[in-house]
Structures are given as structure tokens and as C-alpha cells.
Amino acid sequence: MDEPQKNNLPRWLEWAREIQALAQTGLHYAPDDYHRDRYRRLMDIAVEITSEYGGLPRENVKLAFTAARGYATPKVSVRGAVFRGGKILLVRDRTDGGWCMPGGWADVGDSPSAMVEREVLEESGLTVRAARLVGVYDANNESGLREVMHLYDLVFLCDDLGGEPHASNETSDAGFFGLDEIPTLSSARTGLRQLRAAFTHRENSSLPAEFD
Question: What is this structure's pTM?
């Protein structure tokens, strides 16, 4: 009997990610070159699968798969849900032209709350304070290919402390939108599920954080 589909990922990407994780962890613990050579070959196989079936440049995939060191774990991003007048702040990403909640990759040395506050300021010009965690989301459960690496999204509800939304080096526009006014989203950064959760948590502060 076939194993039931656990998420929205294509099976080839699940296999490639698992091979990559085994190779990365194996390279970290390998006792000698004999074992390291075999883990490097596993890494090459994961790169070949992802490049072939994902239609991605091989060198880009190799860079993503070999950048991390040590025991393999999911990557982490943070997103800030900021409201003004009942509407949520979105920024337009320069890379794909889609809209998303401001945020980005988690940085080493900073707390999640400090990171999301800084990301919102840098991408939109607004000063905010992280107030509550909306949820922790597994990007595997979002529609579309997010990243070749496994990713967790942390979404924070933030208090608006002031400022006017504007573009930045990473964003071409910024503004506030009602739930029925959401423009085309950057699927690699924000899902509609997360936006709806942000509106729901804003209306009901007693709700616990969501998680996958």
C-alpha cells in the first residue's frame, strides 16, 4: 500500500531533502575520508534530483544544499503581522513582484522578536514591537515550492509604534490591505493561511499560538 501524502511537497523533493540531510549530518560525523567521499556522493545525488525535477540551476541547488554544516535542521524565517485601521501591512518583494508580510531569514545572535522588529523596520519603514506569536508553520504544508530546504515560518503579531510605509532595498512598495483586498502574494514568503490566522488572532487576543 502506498504511503499517504503527508504534505503538499512532491515526493522527489521529500526524497532529495532526506538524502541531503543524511549527507550533511554524515559529513559532520564522518571519521575519515572513506566515509566522507560516500556522503559527498549522496549530496551530489540530492543536488541532481532537485535540479532535474525542480528545473533549477544545478549550481544554485548545490550552494543551498552545501552551505549548512553540522547536524541538519530546518531553516527558520520570521514574519511580522502589523495592523492599522483593521488592515494588515504587506510589502512587495523586488525578487518576484509578489506581496508578503515583512520578514526574512532568522539571524544568528538575535532573538526571534528582535529579528522580526528589525525586518519590519528595514522592509517597510514602520517601527513595531513584537507582541504575540500567531503561529509556527511548516512550509511543507503551503501550496507551491517554497525553498529547496525545509523551512519553518514564525509569524508574530506586532504593535504598530509609528512610521509611514515605504519601499526599501528589498521591497518596491508597502501598504495596508483588508482581508478582501489582498494582492497577489509572494508564495515563497507568505501564505493565505498565515494571513487569515493573523486577522483572527488580532480579533481574539486569547487564542493560543497555532502550530503544525
Answer: 0.82
Give the distance, in angstroms, between the CA of residue 33 and the centroid of all CA atoms in the same chain: 34
Kindly list the distances between the CA atom of residue 172 and the CA atoms of 90, 99, 121, 123, 153, in Å, as whole numbers in the listed order: 11, 10, 14, 9, 22
Per-residue pLDDT tens over the stretch 108-123: 899 999 999 999 999 9
Residue 3 has a CB neighbour count (10 Å cut-off) of 6
The CATH number fitting domain 75-211, selected from 1.20.1070.10, 3.20.20.370, 3.90.79.10, 3.90.78.10: 3.90.79.10
Q: Are 146 and 121 in contact (CB under 8 A)?
A: no
Ordered by start, the domain boundaries in the chain are 11-66, 75-211
All three cell numbers of 67, joined, read: 552551505
Rounded CA separation 111/83 (Å) = 22
Cβ within 8 Å of residue 159, ≥6 positions away: 128, 129, 131
Separation between Cα atoms, residue 5 and residue 3, nearest integer Å: 7
CA dist., res. 32 & res. 138, Å (int)? 35
